[in-house]
Specification:
Layout lengths: L7 H15 L34 H5 L3 E5 L5 E7 L10 E6 L1 H4 L8 E6 L5 E4 L12 E10 L5 E9 H5 L18 E6 L13 E16 L2 E9 L12 E4 L5 E8 L13 E2 L13 E5 L1 H6 E2 L2 E2 L15 E3 L4 E2 L2 E2 L2 E2 L4 E4 L8 E8 L15 E2 L5 E3 L8 E10 L7 H8 L2 E7 L9 E9 L2 E9 L7 E8 L12 E2 L5 E4 L5 E8 L9 E5 L1
Parallel strand pairs: 18-26
Antiparallel strand pairs: 1-2, 1-5, 2-3, 3-7, 4-6, 5-6, 6-7, 8-9, 8-11, 9-10, 9-13, 10-14, 11-12, 12-14, 15-16, 17-21, 19-20, 21-24, 22-23, 22-25, 25-26, 27-28, 28-31, 29-30, 29-32, 32-33
Length: about 525
């Protein structure tokens, strides 16, 4: 799960909204009591990283990091940065964090450039447990840059200058150009809050290593390239944006951005998965990923972040517009073979007079290279639809969409477009859920006699919807498809005196693959 935190309630509501959004066909409503199946392991049950003392060696290295309070009250971690580490004291300071710390609703291709920040955003550097009397909080003035396209990153401008921070012995760090290779030892400073007692939600230090480099990572609606897989422990909500450094703590090579949440299944919100040619790879629980900071480093200069700087690798957000469902589907539907459903419109008529497409498995297809793109086709102002038939094999497929001025696919304009092609994606899934459906039964004794409340239990992201039926045990055949209807979140209320009952439930995933029917006798 993304490891910025507002509250557990907010995370639960986000999961509930996502279940409703992703469900295809039958409704999938999760009640406020949180019947989500196996509960995610509580952050309090996981090992805690040790607190950093202000006067320790680690404290000296990480005074530039601290608590960021951003979009929607999200708590994250951020770090003061500069291109060289020797800024003009009068210059407004920049901090580096995750894109979802600025807005966890950023869409697949969305890029935010130079936008005022809300009045209530703030940053507190040198955020240690034993220096609270000297801590000072500064307002975040501007979102200089934020995206979750390819990388989960934001650069924010403070009301404070580098000189003001220097008087607090807070000096900026310089991001490194690349993540280190597999096996490299790391440190990660972060201020977790989920599952952490009041009074202990301060900067902590995790020691770990890189377990995978240049990983293609998919979570919810986001596609990230070049992520680093780590075995960092003690990470929970609030840790997002925490600087990941080399083992000596000197160089920032990445930022903590997401965690494989225990208790949930498959791939989805809270369960990032890695792309491969053979299908999405489900990592083990508590795997932590780091987003690289090299693209930010390539755009930093003495006076701040400049997207037009030669060699800058950050996406400027100048691509064509792409609307698509991001759905999960079987390869053959009631309407025939499953197809892409992307609608493409130009962002600029002159710059995007043509559009080119190519597609392939996530983690394998390289949208930045011209090989494999079909010949560019004219792109009118009203846009064009891409409705080619999808592959039949289970996988997450990416559609690369690049706009250009002509039909050549050559030249500087096309090269810039290919470097930051827009995406659509679809997951082809012909595999039934890997878990069996389960039913929750509760007995109540009322004035009018005993009765049962019966309802199925979701198991995200393997079972996200149900069809159910029920009746007298003797006359109800769960194998008979007749009589099933979508479960709408309302428990069946069955009088004990009219039993025994049989409750039938078929679970479905987001591609509408069914489980075998469950027969639950209630008496």
């Amino acid at each position: 799960m993304l490891i910025g935190a507002a509250s557990r309630l907010r995370t639960t509501l986000h999961l509930q909204r996502t279940l409703r959004t992703l469900a295809v066909g039958a409704a999938a409503v999760v009640t406020a009591s949180g019947l989500l199946g196996a509960p995610a392991a509580r952050a309090a049950d996981r090992p805690e990283a040790p607190l950093i003392a202000a006067d320790s060696a680690a404290g000296a290295k990480f005074r530039s990091s601290g608590r960021l309070v951003g979009g929607g009250g999200t708590t994250c971690t951020a770090t003061v940065v500069h291109a060289t580490g020797r800024p003009d004291p009068a210059q407004k300071a920049l901090i580096l964090s995750n894109g979802h710390c600025a807005d966890d609703g950023l869409r697949t291709n969305e890029v935010v450039v130079d936008r005022p920040a809300p009045q209530d955003w703030s940053f507190t550097p040198a955020y240690f447990h034993d220096n609270t009397a000297e801590q000072k909080t500064f307002r975040v003035e501007r979102i200089v840059y934020a995206t979750m396209k390819d990388i989960d990153v934001s650069v924010l401008q403070l009301s404070a200058t580098y000189g003001e921070l220097a008087r607090l012995r807070v000096t900026p760090r310089t991001p490194a150009p690349a993540l280190p290779p597999t096996g490299t030892r790391l440190q990660a400073a972060h201020a977790p809050s989920d599952g952490v007692e009041d009074g202990k939600r301060f900067l902590r230090l995790s020691t770990c290593k890189v377990t995978g480099s240049s990983v293609a990572l998919h979570e919810h609606t986001w596609l990230w390239r070049g992520s680093g897989r780590t075995d960092c422990l003690g990470i929970s909500g609030g840790s997002s944006g925490g600087p990941v450094t080399t083992a000596d703590g000197e160089r920032i090579v990445g930022m903590l951005n997401t965690l494989v949440t225990p208790g949930y299944l498959g791939c989805g919100l809270g369960r990032p998965c890695e792309g491969s040619s053979s299908g999405l790879v489900v990592p083990k629980d508590d795997t932590v990923y780091a987003t690289p900071v090299g693209a930010v480093a390539s755009c930093l200069e003495e006076r701040g972040l400049r997207l037009s700087r030669p060699g800058c690798r950050l996406d400027r957000g100048e691509q064509v517009g792409v609307e698509f469902s991001g759905r999960q589907t079987r390869s053959v539907t009631e309407q025939g073979p499953a197809r892409w459903d992307a609608h493409v419109t130009p962002a600029d008529a002159a710059r995007h007079a043509y559009v080119a497409f190519k597609s392939g498995p996530f983690g394998t297809v390289d949208c930045t290279r011209p090989e494999g793109y079909a010949r560019p086709r004219a792109l009118p102002a009203a846009g064009v639809d891409h409705t080619d038939v999808l592959p039949s094999r289970d996988n997450l497929y990416v559609l690369c969409v690049a706009g250009g001025p002509d039909a050549t696919l050559h030249g500087a304009a096309w090269s810039a477009s290919l470097a930051h092609a827009a995406y659509a994606y679809v997951r082809v899934d012909n595999t039934p859920p890997t878990v069996a459906p389960t039913v929750d039964v509760q007995r109540f004794d009322g004035e009018d006699g005993a009765f049962f409340w019966v309802r199925p239990v979701y198991a995200p992201w393997e079972i996200t919807m149900y069809k159910v039926k029920y009746g007298p045990r003797a006359g109800t055949d769960c194998a008979d498809p007749a009589g099933y209807r979508p479960f709408l979140g309302i428990p069946a209320s069955l009088k004990a005196s009219e039993g025994p009952w049989r409750y039938c439930a078929i679970g479905y995933d987001n591609a509408e693959n069914p489980t075998p029917p469950l027969a639950k006798d209630v008496s």
